[in-house]
Here is the input.
Amino acid sequence: MATTKLQALWNHPAGPKTIHFWAPTFKWGISIANIADFAKPPEKLSYPQQVAVACTGIIWSRYSTVIKPKNWNLFSVNVAMAGTGLYQLSRKIRHDYFSEVDAVSESADKEIVA
Here is the structure.
């Protein structure tokens, strides 16, 4: 039974014998690198890079559902790219726009107390 499933995977139109398998498989490296960057300070993140990662993930997730044959590896890697890109963008935006508001209000509170 396991051999028939492996044989079906091997002979699938998006299986390991085709570029339709290997391109999304190597694309996982981008998502893994973005996950590794979760530990990076938000001020070191790049808006253009994260917008590109998020938009690529969103656009190609949609595309991967309409092509024939359906390529679920391509779909899943692009959902991961969109998710990690949007998360990194939210970290950067919170740091750049909302932490400044907190810092200004804290310094104003300190002036009032002094």
The mean pLDDT is 88. The chain has four helices and no strands.
